[in-house]
Amino acid sequence: MRRLMTLMTLVLAIAAQAQTLNVKVGDVTYLFPASQTGEMTYTTGTTLTIMGKDFTISDITKMFVDNAEVVDNTVTVSYNGTSAAVTIAGNVARFVTPAVSGAHVSITQTNTDDDDTEITYSLSGESTDGEFYMSGQYKATVELNGLTLTNQTPVFSGAALHIQNGKRINVSVKKETTNTLTDCANPSTDLAQKAALYVKGHMELKGRGTLNVNGRYAHAIRSGEYTTQKNCSVNVLSAVKDGLNCSQYFYMESGELKISGVGDDGIQCDLDGDTSTGETTDHEDEDSGNVYILDGTIVINVTAAATKGIKADGDMRIVGGTLTVTTTGNGTYDSTEKDAKGSCALSADGNMTIAGGTLTLKSTGTGGKCIKADGTLTVNDGVVSATSTGSQYRYSSSYTTSAKAIKAGKRTQTGGSGRNVTYSYSGGIVITGGTVTASAASHEAIESKSTLDISGGYVYAYSTDDAINSASHMTITGGYVMGNSSGNDGLDANGNMYIKGGTVFAIAARSPEVAIDANTEGGYKLYVTGGNIIAIGGLESGSSLSQTCKQASSYSKNSWYGLYSDGTLVTAFKVPSNSNMGSGMVVSTSGTATLKSGITVSGGDSIWNGFGNVGGSVSGGSNVTLSNYTGNQGGGGPGGGGGGPGGGGWW
Amino acid sequence: MKMKKTLLMLTVAAAACSASAADYPYLVFQSTGGVEKAVAVESLTLIVSDGQLLAVNESGTQSFTLTELNKMYFSQTATGIETIDTQSLVGDEKAEIYDLSGRRVVRPVGRGVYVIKKNGVVRKISLK
User: Fold this and answer.
1) Does residue A393 fall inside a structural domain?
2) A405 neighbors A461 (Cβ within 8 angstroms)
3) CA spacing 20 to 30 A to A15: which of A50, A248, A436, A459?
């Protein structure tokens, strides 16, 4: 075996050896394999043409023959302090025109003859004052092969890496290399860059190496068209503006993307044209402003006022990966849009779909939110943790923005005034699976400005305001839903409330708040036609109850209970220890509901942020005496809906 | 047996690779008049100076007038057959003269093609 390996090495060594004609023009060396040159012609003693490349003979420093290895279709740039050495493979020499000034390198590339011939620019070395600028009209690959480049005194552009090429550019971060790009902090107006790493066309980040970027003038990374990422580790260490800014769409297949130290958004994806194409097949010619996250790890921290962790002009779809996004900036007044704006971890002007992944989102500033979608937020799978700890941002009484954990949908006033205002609704919230844990210190934890539908999954919401609120109808047909409010309603619909299935555990503050509220003042109603219900603080008055409801006159905080339907355990739950809780506990199941207090739970899965258990074993406990309940005995009454200022309802 | 076959294949492949790597011992320069001169490629450097292309290798320096150059190409053989004054080579210690059998001779004798090596430049001549 060893002999075989030795012979193979010898074969490869022999194959690698070849003669190369080096033609040196200043800091640029053209490498022509002797096997490819053919006839090299002289013209009037002034021009030498090799493989289609014309050289002015007086520009040639020298020519020599050696055994240099030539990789076809490759241009290498090796930075070394104040200089850069450029080598160009002979077969693409005629397509490439270099210009070198110290460590500032510019390449002009014309189209290659062959659609399959793509030039790779391999950059390596270090310079504290250099750049790489490429202009062209054909797709290319820029390979970062251990490059540390800072641009101090721009010659071609203020960027460290500027690809003025509207085609597809692979930015390949070579495996086991670390590369750092830093742009010029104060370029002249004519050389002012959009980012430290700028691609005019489509940018595809790939490879298995590490790329660090500092944007000292504007964005850290920007592409004029779409950006995709696969495998590599990208760290935005600083930026005056966004960490990563692109148009058309952003697509993350895998890899790591960490963004911090930025002055604006973490990732922003804008529509390029005026009209969205929506998502297209294979994203061909797509211009949607959409963000797609398939897998990988994203960690984003943004600190400036009203900034977004990830912002999509269009839709956002997350199907996997691990996202940790934190915003700390306070709200501010946007004089352009004439509105109060807050920070938000994930923001989509269109729809947002979460179909997988683990999302840990936090907003701490005034008016800060974790999720905001102007369209429909759909959660099908995945684990979402959303925590909003700030208070309301108030510019004036007319311009405020609330600090909710999750907000989706739009309610638009269509007419009327005062109590007779009319609205139209769009978007909303749909939860069919997954686990959603939402907490807000000051406002609704989960709010839909339209309808809210839950048919599966595990939802836990806590707030000092309504835990879960909808501006229009709320419908629960499945899943496990807990709304825990220490200051208002547990679940509050400003339209009708429909409980048709699933398991609902709602806790309200003391009267007049109710555990499950509907907008009876507006002529709407709570309809209970199925499901399992535990309601501390009672149900909205005037409810339509199609199944029997019972009530325990008292309960013990911090104690485990078991709810049974016809003797079968439906759910084990623990009463929170909020200081402000409604009186009485209403329970209802499709069969005969019974209740046990003081149970011991073992095994199973913890749900509802530890306030529930499914699949576990229950032992011990005492039967709780239940009386019939026909509505509005434990609390409730008028005025229980809507949340605080800026919330739903007509005020 | 299998190992022997593998080794045989690799040996053939090595030979093939060696051939396809195409080692060119010479860089041939052709003048506008059609005259060709071959220069050994080993340690070869070409320098442009004052209208001349200087081919420098271990054997020395050969100069070509740029305006009289037509083309150059890599070659595995010394090409170009000239007519020269062979008498001028007699006694020239720097000139090495070989017949096509590879035997070194003092001077070309009889008809045929001879190879002359001088100052790193190799030329073929034909005596008729």
Assistant:
1) no
2) yes
3) A50
